[in-house]
Amino acid sequence: MDRNFADPARERLLLDRYRLAERIGIGACAAVFRAEDLRLKRNVAVKIFSPGPTSWESELAILCRLQHPFLVGILDSGSWDDEFEGTRPFLVMEFIDGCDLRTLLARHPGGFTPAKTARLGWALAQGLDAVHSDGVVHRDVKPANILMGGSGLPKLCDFGVSRLHDGAEATIPGVTIGTASYLSPEQALGEPVHASADIYSLGLVLLECLTGAKVFPGSALEASIARLLHDPSIPEWIDTDWRQLLTAMTARGAAQRPTAAECGEALFELQLRQPAHAA
């Protein structure tokens, strides 16, 4: 993978407009670069997919229909014809000058204040409500896919494994898609996945933000099995209202979980109950 996205890609000009700079992320089938938009004189993020079959068309279709302040927006798309590797499609997205939530949590091993967690959760619930209202399931809500900009508010990114509710590829029976530590029980079982799976994952993210510890650590197999055997452990010191919300969000029965809109309302109320200096 590193060979496909090595340093020689730097300074390459895409669409006679986007000059690639340093690589800022890499995954199984794509790499993300910071780039300069020479026309509008601003930084953008360019996600370049590896040659061969990828999910880029699905991701493009989903991003084009999703516009929300708490979702990373798409700006352009195209293809890069490499004489050695073949055609590589790419997406141009807004650049978030900050870090992801995973990195931020590593800097705060004790977790965040309830006020900060409620504000972050409210924003993410708002973004997921827009996603779900447009018939999309993200399927990989986790700290690494939550970008934190200068405003302190998050933007959900990486819709590479997302699917439309009514899409023919919404679920492949018996196949698990997502990140083990944040999977819903139905994802761990390879069962049909709906919007409620994102709510479960968001509940795990918020619990991690409050405690500073991953709820289901260990190997992919250990983490997947753990959520099938027991519910997340919510420490007694967490406020009752928080406990009730997190318990509902991480219910093993998908139908028992609140919607993203309901989570947003509850998290907004939790913000209001916090002292002004507690952020």
Automatic annotation (TrEMBL):
Its EC number is 2.7.11.1. PROSITE patterns: PROTEIN_KINASE_DOM, PROTEIN_KINASE_ST. Residues 18-279 form the Protein kinase domain. Keywords: ATP-binding, Kinase, Nucleotide-binding, Serine/threonine-protein kinase, Transferase. Signal peptide: none annotated. Coiled coil: none annotated. Pfam families: Pkinase. GO terms for molecular function: protein serine/threonine kinase activity. This is non-specific serine/threonine protein kinase. The lineage of its organism: Bacteria, Bacillati, Actinomycetota, Actinomycetes, Micrococcales.
